[in-house]
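Re-run with default settings, no changes from the original entry. Doing this only to confirm the output is reproducible before filing.
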Amino acid sequence: MSKMTRYFLDTEFIEDGRTIDLISIGVVCEDGREFYAESTDVDLGRANEWVQANVVPHLWHRRADKASANRWSRDGGAGGLMSRSAIASELRRFVNQGGGPPEFWGYYADYDWIVVCQLFGRMVDLPSDWPMLCLDLKQEAIRLGSPDLPPQEGTEHHALADARWNKVAFDFLAAIRETAA
């Protein structure tokens, strides 16, 4: 059996109690590769005040200064501004470049995982070599005694910055697990 390749993900979305609509997704692979995409299919006019204030201003396509997005893509980042179906296709391509079957991690990841599954249709429509679950960093932190996690550097509520922090949190928790073993 080949070694799992870890992916740390985060999404930003609009939810109304009935639907969850993807705004953006960030995924960081343990090998350093990064994927970030913003959906062209989302209606940001449906976003509540919190999303309008805390998520929308950080979207790369909404910024007057596109330097950070341009620098990131020039440095090899995958993704961009695209439709949900294109995001699914590019995300599958990104994950398939890993060395083994994927293992996904998120922080309070339940809705994030639903959004990822919905990119492909239903959960059973996920790529066949993908797991049907995303492991949760918050649950792992609780299991390890609820240590204070490292502060996040970068913009909170930006999917790529949050995915990067998820990797930092995973590494922090892994060190605690190793010390306890």
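The radius of gyration is 16 Å. The helical segments are 49-54, 67-74, 84-96, 110-119, 137-143, 159-180.
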